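Can't paste images in this forum, so I'm doing it all in text. The chain is below; anyone willing to post the predicted structure tokens underneath?
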Amino acid sequence: HDVIEEVIGSDAVLGISLGDLVGDNLNLFHPLNEVIATVGIPWYNVYGNHDMNRLATDDQYADETFERVYGPTCYSFDWGPVHFINIDNVLFYRDAENNPRYSSEVGERQLTFIRNDLAFVPKDQLVVISFHIPLTEMRDVKKLMNLLGDRPHTLSLSAHTHIQRDDFVGPDHGWHGDDPHHHHNHATTSGSWWQGTLDEVGIPHTTMRDGAPNGYGIFTFSGNQYSIRFKAARRPADYQMNIWAPWEVTSTETGKTDIVVNVFGGTKRSTVEIRLGEDGEWRSMTYTPQQDPYYKALKARDDANQLERKLHVALREAIKSQLKEDSELPQAGKGITGIAKSTHIWQAKLPANAPKGTHVIYVRTTDMFGQTFTGRRIIRVR
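Text version of the structure:
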């Protein structure tokens, strides 16, 4: 209800899921397929660590259920001018106590496939390679980058982290192209694992640990060029940022007051500007990766709600014999876990000695693709 319903009938030509499709419950592959089918477009799937057969003895059999449903975990295809390669970079193994574990690598077999596959792909064609665990966590990342390094038009996609982050990869990871390789670690549709207080329709807010809402990406391709636009689930398309500011501040304190902006799809190549009021001067904000204060406050509220619920449950248990009916409390959602450093935060102070009254903070951002988005927040100066 959070994502699929709003993309049914969209003009997209294909979809890709970047792994962790079924949360370790392999019986969900077929119900998932029935839901995805309602979108009405071809859909391609990447294998993730929560799609493994955890009863397998080794990596050879860990993906057998996924392969039975979807086919190989390593494959390629062309769509229009773009060459797509989807691979499995989850290596399943059992530890000394026979517990299921995983690490991340591509492996020689898939590296050979990629090398042979690229031999038939023109050098000036855009190659998009997708896998589940981020490129920077792969043990043999340098071998993969070496296969792509002589190509001027590449993009890689991953998931796994439940945040949104963009890396521009260079020699430290084996990339020796003229420009850094762009790796997009994608936001998740499940956000913070479907955690958080339930909203008015019973869906958890599930805000990701970097302060961005759960959602998906819309990719546009033109020749060997691409752009990415983040879309928050069940939000308007222009909802692209949160502006963190106090509700009110004194005039003497405005010059010391920080405004923090989380641009959900922003990267270090984005520009972000701020002004106070329509007649204010646009000023550049400073790129300052940090924990999102909005998310920290949200987590504190969620934690308080969870504590209140635990106390309520304990009280009901203590007086159970006096209750006329033994009904359970309504579902309330799970507590959200962890706070991550966000790589898409900008910060600036308000103008000093701002006049008293109600003002509008305006923020505008232009991303690495030239797309511009705006946001507003009201603040009172007293």
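The two ends are 43 Å apart (CA to CA). The mean pLDDT is 94.
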